[in-house]
Amino acid sequence: MVVINRAALLLVANVVAVVCRRHDATPYLDTTLSPAERATDLLGRMTWEEKVGQLGGVRRAFGTAGGKPTFNRTTYETTRTTQNGQIGYGPQLNWANDLLPLMNNLRAEHLNDSRLGIPYIIVADSVNGLWVSGGTLFPGTISMASSWNLPLYEQVAAAMRDENLAMGVHWVLSPEVDVIQDPRNGRNGEMYGEDSYLVGEFATRYIKTMQERDENGWVKVATTIKHFVFGGGSGGVNRASMFGGINHILNDLAPPYRKAIEEARPLSLMASYSSVDGVPLSINRHLLQDVLRGTLGFEGLIMSDANAIEYLFTESKVASSREDAAVKALAAGLEHELHPGGRGLFSDLRDPKYEAEPDVVSLVDESVRAFLEIKFATGMFERPLPSVESMKATLRNERHLELNRNITRESLVMLKNDGLLPLDRDEIGAGGGRGKIAVLGPYADIINAGNYAPADPLDRRYGNSIRLSFEKELGVDSIIYAQGTSTILPSYVGDGSADEQAIAEAVEAAKAAGLAVIVLGSGFGNFDQKFINNERTDTEGYAHADLGFPGRQQQLLDAVLDAGVPTVLVMNAGQVFVLDNSTMSRCRAIFHVWLAGEYTGDALVETLLGDINPSGKLTVTMPQHNGAFPVAYDLLPSDGVGGFGSALAYDWHWPQLTRKPPLAFGFGLSYTTFSMSDAEVSLRKRQNHKVVSVSVTLTNAGNIVGKEVVQLYYRPRYTTIEFPVMKLIRFAKVELTPGDSKRVALEVPVRELGYFVDGQWNIDHGEYSFWVGSSSREEDLTLLNVTIPSFG
């Protein structure tokens, strides 16, 4: 265990004094120079071993035992001798209060030992907020994207940034901008959705907010946009290969990268595990150099995913040794190695023979320079170590908690309501007409936040479960809880008798209560070892062969429905599920709450009781049947025709299904009624370019305040290559009081209506169709046509 004491504090003061004395004679410590100038000067002073050391780092400085951080001095020293560019905190279950003093001590010690005073930079993932425990636990990425509220998300990203800063984290491995193309992918909960425009909008705001500059001009937190390029892995498997030519990559997968690179300039990018057209991204020079740097214009640092360079040798068999893999990855364009533990492959380049190879030396120099620029840009050479006092004042402050409450409330998606909701609280409880509520299911009493969240699902410090939120709001005596399956996770083993008994008990609870809220889902826990070897069923490393509810959860739901009890179904996971016709027709109301944050339980109960009006919308389409995908709304016209003409127009899959499921991208219900009228489209001149302007009158025709998302889609009538039936191009979330109307105008520069053809940007002239409405479903849209005669 590392101990922070007075001697350590004196060490920090001495280091600062040494740095100050160096300043006058050392250009790389001159803050008036640019990060590039400082990096070039420092690079010229470094030995070969010092340079190679910057290509990796100590990803897990601490372990964990008994809820407290542990420290292995031997392991740490062995790693940092050869890999000392960045450092990470380690296990998620350790708490910030315990970790910060220990990390401060390590950073000061390392700086004092560094010949040139080159500091670490702390790196961490930041999906739900802090990687480690003790910060504000926001919902998962797909949850917050379901709010469709960009200004609110920017505020959330700022809160996440400030909590990372308070822990000394100045480089995050986020955001993930992969486009959801396969509902079987276990990592979909880390992504924003299936539409490239929506993904790009959210990701760009995340990057801009994280990389905002402080009063000294330093970037607050550097971001890593990832994973270039991924989204269509075979079978939904995380590290699977992909097929697709340059048009598919540039038009379907890369648009979020293009927008973020042009507008937000992320300082780093992570290459994916995937092999594309047979070439692993870690050695795919064409995609990393010609496409990413050339066509898309990325100028930041390119890093590997965890273990990806090693996999070139051990899995893909495209390298004959560790050293061969390292050299090939470096030559292709990888500049930094993310390795979770042990000896990274770039560290093998310390061998003096490589210092005698000019090509390797040049590649290492460029890689180190790029990495040092991030350190200088983020102020690593000047910033003081964060204080425990500042950390305590920042983490979980009231403003952050209120932002969390608001983004959670707007992230819940109501998919069905036959009039049962909102519930009348006066009818619930002792003497009430309805009696009690049965809160059922294996996900009703845990916090299922995703594996990139620090939350232990059973640790009550991370917020209320849905069960506890009901009990807090209505009283313990008003709630009957039953797990409904024999284990906290759906059971796949045994003869099923324990589950049969648990289901029977849940049915009796539902009958006794008169109303059932059943919470089903998938996923459980984070990367801590105690969660790794269980039946997580969702999240990284788990692909779905079946999009039904894992285990015997469907049997639980069917049994309660068979008993005739009015039922509200709540889904809690990072994935979509197939809801069969029986479920859709018999459930009185259906919600998807996605991956939970600490206020998901509270927000759901508020919504069911009518204190909050739901306003979330799907960012990914829910299939109608297992195997009935790809199912994303933006299909190619030829993919939606069917087999042999109009007689079999809907034979896309058997049983006969349409290519446009009812629970489609952009869909979500409200307790009030919105209408859109008087839609208009025009072509206008704005300064030196043309824009398409679409306006519509949005009216709240109901009797309560609500928020609606006005969505704008488009497609050219005829195109050079096949173009989707429609693509999202703008959206706006609008709040209206009952009876009020607002004219909503959405403008799109004509230059944004193009697409890539063999690497060249192409804009079609002629007739365009625009659709404005409340979802991607035909019945929710109004069609408008406009002719674009020329480009501008």
TrEMBL record:
<dbReference type="InterPro" id="IPR002772">
    <property type="entry name" value="Glyco_hydro_3_C"/>
</dbReference>
<protein>
    <recommendedName>
        <fullName>beta-glucosidase</fullName>
        <ecNumber>3.2.1.21</ecNumber>
    </recommendedName>
</protein>
<dbReference type="GO" id="GO:0008422">
    <property type="term" value="F:beta-glucosidase activity"/>
</dbReference>
<keyword id="KW-0732">Signal</keyword>
<keyword id="KW-0119">Carbohydrate metabolism</keyword>
<dbReference type="GO" id="GO:0000272">
    <property type="term" value="P:polysaccharide catabolic process"/>
</dbReference>
<feature type="signal peptide">
    <location>
        <begin position="1"/>
        <end position="17"/>
    </location>
</feature>
<comment type="similarity">
    <text>Belongs to the glycosyl hydrolase 3 family.</text>
</comment>
<dbReference type="Pfam" id="PF00933">
    <property type="entry name" value="Glyco_hydro_3"/>
</dbReference>
<keyword id="KW-0326">Glycosidase</keyword>
<dbReference type="InterPro" id="IPR036962">
    <property type="entry name" value="Glyco_hydro_3_N_sf"/>
</dbReference>
<dbReference type="Pfam" id="PF14310">
    <property type="entry name" value="Fn3-like"/>
</dbReference>
<dbReference type="InterPro" id="IPR017853">
    <property type="entry name" value="GH"/>
</dbReference>
<keyword id="KW-0325">Glycoprotein</keyword>
<dbReference type="Pfam" id="PF01915">
    <property type="entry name" value="Glyco_hydro_3_C"/>
</dbReference>
<dbReference type="InterPro" id="IPR050288">
    <property type="entry name" value="Cellulose_deg_GH3"/>
</dbReference>
<comment type="pathway">
    <text>Glycan metabolism; cellulose degradation.</text>
</comment>
<keyword id="KW-0378">Hydrolase</keyword>
<dbReference type="InterPro" id="IPR026891">
    <property type="entry name" value="Fn3-like"/>
</dbReference>
<feature type="domain" description="Fibronectin type III-like">
    <location>
        <begin position="708"/>
        <end position="776"/>
    </location>
</feature>
<dbReference type="InterPro" id="IPR013783">
    <property type="entry name" value="Ig-like_fold"/>
</dbReference>
<dbReference type="InterPro" id="IPR036881">
    <property type="entry name" value="Glyco_hydro_3_C_sf"/>
</dbReference>
<keyword id="KW-0624">Polysaccharide degradation</keyword>
<dbReference type="InterPro" id="IPR001764">
    <property type="entry name" value="Glyco_hydro_3_N"/>
</dbReference>
